[in-house]
Design a protein that fits this description.
about 240 residues, alpha+beta, Glutaredoxin, Glutathione S-transferase Yfyf (Class Pi), Chain A, domain 2, four-stranded mixed sheet, about 5% strand, globular
């Protein structure tokens, strides 16, 4: 099957978690909106009254006749089919639970630069963003990444599931990369306390297919339009 991934063409965003899973799986896929006319197709689907299961927003994935939206939902579909999640119910639920925890954390990261409203520019909420980021770095990264550090300690292996990589490992890699970009000084301090998470990040980066993807033009660089943004005044 050749998948069609629909996401905004200029940012990593929430679509990047799906891209990483597809790349690690060696799956055949098209990043639709990055092709000529692709963004028009994306918008047509969002505005269509004919879709039986219409997505609210990107990312969404076309897999044959299936239309699947929401990052964690897409990954829950892809994981067992490509060896990135257990096939037993308890294992699938556990991986999905971890992914939803990552989604919660990512939303809090987004709030560091858009604490009032996503419709407003950062410059319109700069003061509030500085206050939110200061409070954020008192406890939230420590709590979330500390939780994943404990999961790794108990897993018995280098991955969150133990000896078997899953899509949540890829997503945790992306979170570490994103926070390193957005908060380089603060993250350097935090990394001393989460050696397992850092080691997982390094192990993912060395995976042959992931390494090839990161070095390719398919990997959109971090920028100040996505979830992870660098503003010097927020990096305490």
């Amino acid at each position: 099957m050749r998948y069609e991934l629909f996401y905004w063409p200029e940012i990593q965003g929430r679509g990047e978690y799906v891209r990483l899973a597809l790349e690690e799986a060696g799956a055949s896929y098209v990043d639709v909106a990055r092709r000529r006319g692709g963004e028009d197709r994306l918008m047509a689907i969002l505005g269509s009254e004919r879709e039986k299961y219409p997505p609210y927003a990107p990312p969404f994935l076309k897999a044959g006749r299936l239309m699947i939206a929401q990052t964690a939902n897409i990954l829950q579909y892809l994981g067992p089919r490509h060896g990135l999640a257990p096939k037993n119910e308890q294992g699938r639920l556990w991986v999905h639970q971890l992914q939803l925890t990552i989604a919660d954390f990512v939303e809090e990261v987004h709030q560091t630069h858009h604490p009032i409203a996503s419709a407003l520019y950062y410059e319109q909420q700069r003061k509030e963003a500085k206050g939110y980021s200061r409070e954020f770095w008192k406890r939230r990264p420590q709590k979330y990444l500390g939780y994943f550090e404990r999961v790794l300690d108990r897993s018995g292996g280098p991955w969150l599931l133990g000896r078997r990589i899953s899509y949540t490992d890829l997503s945790l890699f992306q979170v570490v990369e994103g926070i390193r970009y957005a908060f380089p000084k603060a993250m350097r301090r935090l990394e001393r306390t989460i050696p397992g998470v850092v080691a997982l990040r390094d192990a993912v980066a060395e995976r042959p297919r992931i390494a090839a993807y990161l070095a390719s033009p398919r990997r959109i660089p971090f920028n100040e339009y996505g979830i992870f943004r660098y503003y010097k005044e927020l990096d305490a």
